[in-house]
Design goal:
The complex is a heterodimer of chains A (about 180) and B (about 300). In chain A, about 70% of the residues lie in helices and about 0% in strands. The two termini of chain A are about 20 Å apart. Chain A has helices at about 5-25, 35-45, 60-80, 85-100, 110-135, 140, 145-175. The chains are: A mainly alpha (about 180), B alpha+beta (about 300).
Chain lengths: ~180, ~300
């Protein structure tokens, strides 16, 4: 991953996280986690066609490191124990990097489906790492009750967010890509 | 060469994983410890969150006014543009009145609390809801907040500070799964430990270690006991909403609804001075100064 691309995506994810935390204070229901959607975009956009971040340029280790840095920043923004989101984002991006080599996500329905899968995996990773490190797995169960609603909302906004991020990619690279994975 | 690169990559990955694991382990064990980098990031991000919170608060007031306006227009087609502007302004004024009302309640609370306190504003809320954490900001200069300080509202206990950066602090709410407060149910003088359930659908807690022989009734008030060193005694915490007794346990399962409506809390009070240790002597009345919000300055 090129440093400029990484910094831009990192900035977008941080903006998404700040927006989510600020809006959460006014919402009665769980909002979509925008930083996860940016991570999803980062993880899936490396297939041929988008050029800049083709799989050979974005190594699994690079994706893991990017996820770790992104997660650590969101840990500090959200107030979660530092390291928890870092580990979860690291493994999420590893998974998405692998997925991007196997699956072409082209339709809006698929985008929603993959977004749901990514958020689900992210929350499971949060749960597992918290249970593992805190030593009190029962304490983490309660946080999964509102997950279905959050998954639904994430599925609803994922295509729009993905489209917006792809447009930003296009603006930054100053060229149109004939076939995009995450349009 | 390729093998060497692969080995280097694996080594770097393993090192990164180890570092992250150590960081998480350290943050779980000592949540109040922060690196200078952590402080720097929070110092940069928190003002943005505070500004965003203020902006959305104003937008929320305008939105409420607009929705009300649509309703009125449907009922009365003759509503003029001037009326619309007035209603919009009125909505803003009402929001202002509500804010003043909240601040007045906080001022009343501060008058009750003899300890040194400071008012803070909620600026952000954790989104995954795995942790019930809110970020607050104080506007008064020269005040130092520390981890462990109690945070209260006019209705009762909100939680306690887990980490601070300058005028910003992360507050662990009572309903957070990591929260534990020593409480008493005055009706039966039963003592227990109230723990958050971590539920993300509702704010609810459980009181543990209350023996089955204690006759706890639904609706009974739950107050802080003053033990544990965090909170002054007799501050409202919540009320009992359900009691279950099973043959398998020595203790009863008591569910408590916190008295503070966390979803609507915008301003809170941080108690800066530590509570005095409770002086409980058999046969002697408890001095007023050690009860409730009466913490000496």
């Amino acid at each position: 991953m090129r440093p400029t691309e990484a910094v831009r995506l990192f900035g977008l994810a941080v903006f998404g996280s700040v927006l989510s935390t600020t809006l959460s204070g006014f919402a009665r229901f769980p909002l979509p986690d925008l930083s996860v959607l940016v991570a999803l975009h980062a993880g899936l956009r490396h297939r041929g066609g988008l050029g800049n971040l083709a799989p050979d340029k974005a190594s699994p280790l690079g994706m893991f490191a990017f996820g770790a840095v992104l997660g650590y920043a969101t840990d500090l923004i959200e107030g979660t124990p530092p390291g928890l989101r870092a580990l979860s984002f690291g493994f999420l991006l590893l998974f998405l990097h692998r997925l991007s080599l196997q699956l072409l996500v082209s339709s809006k329905a698929m985008q929603s489906g993959v977004a749901v899968l990514a958020l689900l995996l992210f929350r499971v990773l949060l749960f597992v790492f918290w249970a593992l490190f805190s030593g009190e797995p029962r304490l983490a169960w309660g946080s999964l009750f509102s997950l279905p609603l959050q998954l639904l909302l994430t599925a609803a906004v994922a295509p729009a967010v993905g489209s917006l991020l792809s447009r930003l990619d296009g603006v930054s690279s100053r060229k149109r890509h004939p076939k995009a994975l995450w349009t | 060469m390729s093998l060497l690169r692969r080995a280097k990559g694996l080594l770097f990955g393993a090192a990164l994983l180890l570092v992250l694991s150590l960081v998480l382990r350290a943050s779980v064990r000592k949540p109040d410890k922060q690196t200078p980098f952590d402080r720097l990031v929070v110092r940069i991000v928190a003002p943005v969150q505070a500004a965003g919170s203020g902006l959305f608060s104003r937008m929320s007031s305008v939105w409420t006014g607009y929705v009300a306006l649509v309703g009125v227009q449907k009922e009365n087609a003759a509503l003029s543009r001037q009326n619309a502007e007035l209603v919009s302004k009125l909505a803003g004024q009402e929001a202002l009145v509500r804010r003043v009302d909240r601040l007045e309640k906080l001022l009343d609370l501060r008058a009750q609390v003899l300890a040194d306190t400071v008012v803070a504003r909620v600026i952000a809320v954790e989104t995954s809801r795995q942790f019930r954490v809110v970020r607050i900001r104080i506007d008064r200069e020269g005040v130092e907040m520390r981890a462990g300080m109690p945070v209260i509202a006019p209705e009762g206990v909100v939680g306690k500070i887990v980490r601070t950066v300058g005028p910003y602090a992360d507050v662990q709410l009572l309903s957070d799964a990591r929260s534990a407060v020593d409480v008493v149910i005055p009706r039966t003088e039963s003592r227990g430990v109230m723990k958050g359930t971590g539920s993300d659908t509702r704010y609810v807690c459980r009181v543990e270690y209350v023996l089955k022989k204690e006759n706890i009734e639904v609706g009974a008030a739950v107050l802080t006991s003053g033990l544990g060193g965090s909170f002054p005694r007799d501050i409202p915490v919540g009320k009992v909403v359900s009691v279950r007794k099973s043959d398998a346990s020595l203790y009863q399962d008591i569910e408590v609804e916190p008295s503070v409506p966390f979803a609507h809390v915008r301003e809170v009070v941080v108690v800066l001075s530590p509570p005095p240790p409770p002086e409980i002597e058999p046969g002697k009345p408890i001095p007023d100064v050690a009860r409730g919000f009466g913490v000496p300055r």
